[in-house]
Amino acid sequence: MAEQWIANDFGGLDVLELREVDVPDPQSGEVTIDVLAIGVNPTDYKGISGSYGVDRSRLPLMLGYEVAGIISAIGSDTEIASGGGAVGDEVIAFRISGGYATSLTVPAKDVFAKPESLDFPEAANLMLVGATALDMIRVVPWQEGETVLIHGASGSVGVVLLQLAQLQGVRAIGTSSESAFGKVRGFGGDPIAYGDGLEARIRQLAPGDVDASYDCVGTDEAVDASLALTKSKDRIVTIANQGRAKSDGFAAVGGGNPESSAYRDTVRADLIDLAGQGKLTIPVAKTFPFAEAVAALDLVKSGHPGGKVALLP
């Protein structure tokens, strides 16, 4: 038996319930993972809230797309996505369903060897934000020597974008609160504060406008600044304001988009390789015991977790 968090209805976090479940034995093409860390993401509570639609035939909702742990069983004639795979191996799994569990059986094609250099909480938080950042760059590519604007640069996706920009010789101007300036600088960005006069402050750092803009916050202030400062609307992308993207004619990406979803699956091994080499860091702000999933989600829902959050069974 295992424990698993589910939502029996749509609504607030009070619909969450911890239950005992049977873990099926892995068939060919499957592995069972004893979970040691679970990535907690905004998409988890958005699904509960009904932001993605209220289809009661989907109840109960299974939370959690990414976990890290140890293989406890493996199906016959089965290899994990990175090759090999045996009981006792440390692994990362993404994108899966029902990751808020102490143990679960998942498709082997979604399981990868965990680099020794990554601890379990960081490993469990690598894939979703990393794949999101790479998806943004897929839609709006950058080139060495360009100057780009990243809104929400101290957030988890923003931090990945900052690191990728630094690796690829791209100058990044990152908006954030003043309290997060040190974090933005630490990951190679030039920080600039949100608030009144944002456009003018950015112009001081980029007098000739910016080559591309990546919006990770979705505020009208961020979108307006990007439209005013970016050389072309086709070089703006958001993950947080689909409405403005549609009305103002720039790109938006999201895991629910089939093209984004397919692409994000293709970059999982690349992300693990970068993280394993120490070229990509995922800051984890706080961990919670598995029993405190509601508190973990509440912190992420606040919009100011200070970094990634992990549940620890």
From TrEMBL:
Pfam families: ADH_N, ADH_zinc_N_2
Keyword presence, NAD: no
Domain Enoyl reductase (ER): 11-311
GO molecular function: NADPH binding; oxidoreductase activity, acting on NAD(P)H
Keywords carried by this UniProt record: NADP, Oxidoreductase
Protein name: NADP-dependent oxidoreductase
